[in-house]
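During data preparation, a discrete fold description was generated, as reproduced here:
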Amino acid sequence: MTSPPLPRRVALISVHTSPLAQPGTGDAGGMNVYVWQTATRLARRGIEVEIFTRATSSADAPLVAAAPGVTVRNVVAGPFEGLDKRDLPAQLCAFTAGVLRAEAMQKPGYYDLIHSHYWLSGQVGWLARDRWGVPLVHTAHTLAAVKNAALAKGDTAEPMLRVIGEQQVVDEADRMVVNTETEAAELVSMYNADRARIDVVTPGADLDVYSPGSRELARTELGIAQDDTVLAFVGRIQPLKAPDVLLAAAAPLIRRSRGSARPVRVLIVGGPSGSGLEQPSSLIDLADDLGIGDAVTFLPPQPSDRLAQVYRAADLVAVPSYSESFGLVAIEAQACGTPVIAADVGGLSVAVADGRTGLLVGGHDIEDWTTAIDGLLATPDRLDLMRRNARSHAEQFSWDHTATQLLSSYSAAMQSFAARNPATVGAASVRRGTRRRRWRRTKLAVGQG
């Protein structure tokens, strides 16, 4: 029996954010973690991964050996600073040229597969797929139609440009990778995707970094009083992530707990992002307006080892997002043994075992959130049981398991692509060789060779 094909080298495209960026601010978030963790796991299995991302500083080296088997290519496309992802469609031509030129300098058949992340990358991957004669696997991470259907108050709707762009990528991708069955159903119902070309691949957590540890030590390192009751939020500060819901829900509990043996405190970890950049101090202002500014601690985005201490220090981690394709924060917190209270949206119903490792709250009504948080804090035995269950639940979601699932999707993409395009696959190698010869002659003619 013939073994299923596996790629030797994958071109991974992440236009709008580099996996080397610190998650939690700007455009860096869970997708950064996903790209980095899957790339390194694939590399450990002998698959070379090259990540194409847009250079955002003149100091960015064109090539970065980021980890054994993982290379990051910083492609110059537009000004280094001053652009967010809404500005990037105008730079896709320049970025695509950089991707195609990088491949043109290699031997024929250099890449076996393209995996694009987010719709901007899918647009680039779609063209590269046709030029290189290799399959395109695409992960959307978030979908405009889903976000617009559950828009947070004060947030800005995703533009029609993105909706159309996503539809084009859905139609063109050889396979789509989604986090949950819910996301698969959304692709089918909102984008008329072919369910047979969709693979459910659950994300994970770094279970070595995110693990149970000493709460006392974590609180000492973070400067948090040992007797405080700590509610934590981790993520980008923007309406979509709804940190304001946590502050408003916690306000009556904070006021009631003043002077008690276990005062309630909120810990916010992250930085402004997206539409949150328009009012970067809005969350601080809200805390002051609610009269709880003295009970809210704001920390900038933290590296993973420090973030693990945040999770360990918390009694409860809140994920009140209006839309969430999965919710890596929920898995990371539970891996550290901390229960999670989350909005019952998107993939959070998979990430959180409702009633066992935390609670899911329907909607974003403030009173509902206050009642749910208060109910958990008032039943310490139940909260302790959730802590004991949290780690074992999180262990079902490892990045190694994600890599295994991805390889299955890659193999299926390669098989189906070869079956549909037998002539294209062979002809593409010839075309690539011709283009490389032309490219090299051009470079020599202008004195660059």
In short: The CA atoms of residues 60 and 74 lie 7 Å apart. Residues 429-433, 435-449 have pLDDT under 50 and may be disordered. The chain has 16 helices and 14 strands.
